[in-house]
């Protein structure tokens, strides 16, 4: 039976440099309940849980656990108290066995110094049998499917005998049968008095398994209620209920002929049968929740992910794009999702980062035309207001917003007819966001065709002429600007329409 609150997080604030991720959030969870934590991407759900598990330290606020205020200084502190977490990103040591992963850092010992491998295997076998998981304790993790790796992570969390288990998108890699199995495990844990905090974007799961639901939006607490008192409509309204602002300076552009057509495009298990058209002067938004497959689609169009089916047409002519160089030849440029890992070369200068994708345009008699390089880079620094001491400054010294502008300049220097921008304003300040939005709109007005992926719903709705919505690797809807609402997009994104 659910009882008193086992956990209270009170007025939690978490600030990162330049970003206030949590703005006085409250969370109260009853003992023995399954409590859903809901909100759009970026609402603060995972950040709040990382404060609870000790990965992040709160800027301010307090945590009351089992009636006592506690200070959680790290993950080991949380585990010792009885709080464990299954993370959205798998954390397996892939070259080690299932048993070694489950007991990592707390291996049973014999003679004080030697790992007792027999006991570790026996304990793992007992745990997996208790959870009805058909997994060999001696199997190397790298040989398992992603779904089975996720089940091992679940078994590891249960092995701590925690009072609270946090599950962050635990079914993202599971089949329907495996999800049913997970729910059996969760209900079994609940019957033993274990409390589950459950994060998911899947509405059907939330209403099937959860007792109460807390909703966050933009790092703020919106409300909490019993699941039985809520409907999908009410929950969606709580999650997305905010106004669009002048941050999105949409200019009506003349929409021209189709420049890109994708038919039944597939890439392994990442996505399948994706079809859409892109026209000159159009901003085509891509919306969807975590794991929907949006980034994988554009990576395939750009040639950095293999195509396993379907066709791509540029100006009504079928093309084969096997690598990024092919895409560039066809006038396509991709501004990648993660500027630190896939975008900037941190030790290189602003100038070198700008020209790296089209250096051949600056070759003059077997050497580089430094005069033209300087002229072009200075032109774009002025045009898009890049704040940098000089073009020779290492890009790592610039703010995130200015780094992003340099990458936009890199894209524009290739003079693409089709510009794909994946999360173009992630992690940058409000002023830089507005400047990049204006730049994208102006490019469309010049007849460029834009594909824009964003996890920020207002950005997608405020900037797009049409929106392609994906759910679990498939297109569930394409919505015209005149018909777009946040509720409609969320329904397609959760496959609830």
UniProtKB/TrEMBL annotation:
Which PROSITE patterns does the UniProt record give? Answer: ABC_TRANSPORTER_1 (PS00211), ABC_TRANSPORTER_2 (PS50893)
Per the record, membrane topology reads: Peripheral membrane protein
Q: Which reaction does it catalyse?
A: D-galactose(out) + ATP + H2O = D-galactose(in) + ADP + phosphate + H(+)
Give its E.C. classification number: 7.5.2.11
Please provide the record's keywords in A-Z order. Answer: ATP-binding, Cell membrane, Membrane, Nucleotide-binding, Repeat, Sugar transport, Translocase, Transport
List the InterPro entries. AAA+_ATPase, ABC_carbohydrate_import_ATPase, ABC_transporter-like_ATP-bd, ABC_transporter-like_CS, P-loop_NTPase
Gene3D superfamilies under this entry? P-loop containing nucleotide triphosphate hydrolases (3.40.50.300)
Where does the source fall among the domains of life?
Bacteria
Q: Name one GO cellular component term.
A: plasma membrane
* GO molecular function terms listed in the Swiss-Prot or TrEMBL record: ABC-type carbohydrate transporter activity; ATP binding; ATP hydrolysis activity
> What's its top-level EC category?
translocase
Q: Where in the cell is it found?
A: Cell inner membrane; Cell membrane
Q: Enumerate the spans annotated as ABC transporter domain.
A: 7-243, 254-497
Presence of keyword Disulfide bond: no
Q: Which Pfam families match?
A: ABC_tran
Identify the main location: membrane
Q: What does this protein do?
A: Part of an ABC transporter complex involved in carbohydrate import. Could be involved in ribose, galactose and/or methyl galactoside import. Responsible for energy coupling to the transport system.
Q: What family does the Swiss-Prot or TrEMBL record give for this protein?
A: Belongs to the ABC transporter superfamily.
PANTHER family annotated for this entry?
A: CARBOHYDRATE TRANSPORT ATP-BINDING PROTEIN MG119-RELATED, GALACTOSE_METHYL GALACTOSIDE IMPORT ATP-BINDING PROTEIN MGLA
The entry's protein name is Ribose/galactose/methyl galactoside import ATP-binding protein
Species per Swiss-Prot/TrEMBL record: Anaeromicrobium sediminis
